[in-house]
Amino acid sequence: MLETQKLIKVFGFRPILRSVDLSVVPGECLILFGANGAGKTTLLRILATPSRPPGGSVSVAGRSLPARQPPCVV
């Protein structure tokens, strides 16, 4: 199962994903389509974990993905 709740992502001051709620259960297929710059790749990067969202929650197979870590100050 794949689930997102109130998922957001911004680049600078530009919102890319705005409060995305998504639920895909086993056996279902998901198709993402939209114009260039709509956030399709950004959503997939968050679900695959190379990118972390600044807000919202993501769970894959019942496990929550870690939230965004604050920057490390040295």
Description:
The chain has 74 residues and is mainly β. The protein has one domain (2-61). The chain contains one helix and four strands. A hairpin with a 2-residue loop joins strand 3 (55-60) and strand 4 (63-64). The longest helix has 8 residues, at 40-47. The protein starts with a strand and ends in a 10-residue tail after the last strand. The model has no long low-confidence stretch (mean pLDDT 87).
**Rg computed from alpha carbons, rounded to a whole number of angstroms:** 13 Å
Structural class: mainly beta
Q: Characterize the largest beta sheet: strand count, sense, and whether it forms a barrel.
A: 4 strands, antiparallel
What is the number of domains? 1
Q: Give the mean pLDDT.
A: 87
Strand percentage lies at: 35-45%
Helix and strand sequence = EEHEE
Globally, the shape reads: globular
- How widely separated are the two ends? 39 Å
List keywords for this structure.
globular; 74 residues; single chain; 4-stranded antiparallel sheet; mainly beta
Q: Quick recap of the structure?
A:
By secondary structure, this protein is mainly beta. Helix content is 11%, strand content 39%.
Secondary-structure map:
Blueprint: E1 2-11, E2 14-24, H1 40-47, E3 55-60, E4 63-64
Antiparallel strand pairs: 1-2, 1-3, 3-4
